[in-house]
Amino acid sequence: MKTQKQDKPISDELIDELLKKGRTADDVNGLLKQITKAVLERALRGELTEHLGYVKHDPAGDNSGNSRNGVTRKTLKGDFGEIELETPRDRNGEFEPQIIQKNQTRWTGFDDKILSMYARGMTTREIQGHLEEMYQIQVSPSLISEITDGVMEQARAWQNRPLEAFYGVVFLDALYVKMRHEGRVENRAVYVALGINLEGRKDVLGLWTSASEGAKFWLNVLTELRNRGVRDIYLVCVDGLKGFPQAIESIYPKAQVQLCIVHMVRASLNYVTWQDRKKVVADLKPIYRAVTVDEAERQLSEFETKWPKYPAIARLWREQWERVIPFFAFPEEVRKVVYTTNAVESLHMSLRKIIKTRGSFPSEEAALKLLYLALAKVVAKWETVQNWKQMLNYLDTICSDRIREAGIRQ
Predict the structure, then answer these.
(1) Helices (H), 215-341
(2) Residue spans of alpha helices (H) in 228-260
(3) CA triplet 133, 138, 144: central angle to 5 degrees?
(4) Residue 11 and residue 246: Cα distance in Å, rounded?
(5) Which end of the chain lies in a sparser environment, N or C, as judged by fewer CB atoms within 10 Å?
(6) Phi/psi class of residue 182: alpha, beta or left (left: φ > 0; alpha: ψ in -120 to 50)?
(7) Does residue 345 share a domain with residue 248?
(8) SS3 129
(9) Is 137 within a domain?
(10) 218 and 84, same structural domain?
């Protein structure tokens, strides 16, 4: 068996020789830049030799039809700062270097660093300052915009990608972002759809913007999801927006609609004085924490008796009762997954942390660009929903025929 050839290590003697000129951080950084420049230029010369088929000054190159033709100088930006490179040329202009390609001015991974900083909510000015401070590189705002604008093609492809045919749960909610629209800065709704597939994996299905949150626009969102391949959804979790359940059922007539309990509690507190808020919240909890629907109804009656000064609260819950109770049919272990939009609200919290550094965005596209990059970081950390096996067994029992109709084989 042949042993793999090992790279020859750099000797301590050579390192000591190189460090004779200085041992400060700046000296070492300058040395690394020199080494990087020397290695890259040697590799480029090696590529040209391979392209031409003969080494420099070799008589075999006489009358070969092509030859070396000096160098082209370029500035390369990277973690090491900036270095001046001499890229060799051939007379026929056929040489296409690979390690540093033609027109390449940034080291591989440099763009990723800018995108990473942008995705963390850093402004163009902050990215400029960071690169100059850390790497002594001056980067223009136009270059940063060029790099980040390149993401929009990926974002559009992501927004239009095909989706799975069946989702166990889909959360629909909106957050508000300040952006410039038709010449003025305004709060615009960014609609978010988050789905959990049959494997228990969460995924953001898309982002959409509108002047405000409304059932009519959600109807457009749901229609798009249908056109992108979502044939059926078992449960859709939403807030108490008027007309929302009807919009959902017009596109997905078999879907159950679950009102977010967090939103129900918040709506209830609109009727409560500040002094009573904690007590009312505590007395509402037994309603949605009940084991059965009958127990929940009994707890609601007790709440109504205890708080006659707030009749509007009990009336609110009774009016929405059919949309409040679907989660009681689920296994207890997974009720928390479906009776609240906490999953999407947690996502919103992560996004708000990133966009809070921006006073406003110059356009909808700029806002969606940052949100798309931020989402990629958040989604990459998601794991399978806990206790999803119990939920899957429930779905298999209740709606296996719908899953098969969607074209999914179990």
Answers:
(1) 215-227, 244-251, 261-269, 277-288, 293-306, 311-319, 321-324, 335-338
(2) 244-251
(3) 105
(4) 74
(5) N
(6) left
(7) yes
(8) helix
(9) no
(10) no
- 199, 328: one domain: yes
State pLDDT tens for residues 45-65: 877 888 888 888 788 777 778
Q: What is the pLDDT of residues 226-275, one digit of tens each?
A: 999 999 999 998 887 778 888 999 999 999 998 888 889 999 999 999 99
Domain count, the chain: 2
- Are residues 183 and 104 part of one domain? no
Instruction: Provide the angle, in degrees to the nearest 10, between the axes of the packed helices 311-319 and 261-269.
Output: 150
**Same domain assignment for residues 160 and 104:** no
Of 75, 108, 141, the position where a domain reaches its end is: 108
Cβ contact 199:216 at 8 Å: no
The two structure tokens encoding residue 227: 């056109």
- Domain with 377 in it: 156-405
HSE-CB at 67 with a 13 A cutoff on CA atoms is: 11
Least confident of 5-19, 29-43, 394-408: 5-19
Mean pLDDT, the chain, whole residue set: 83
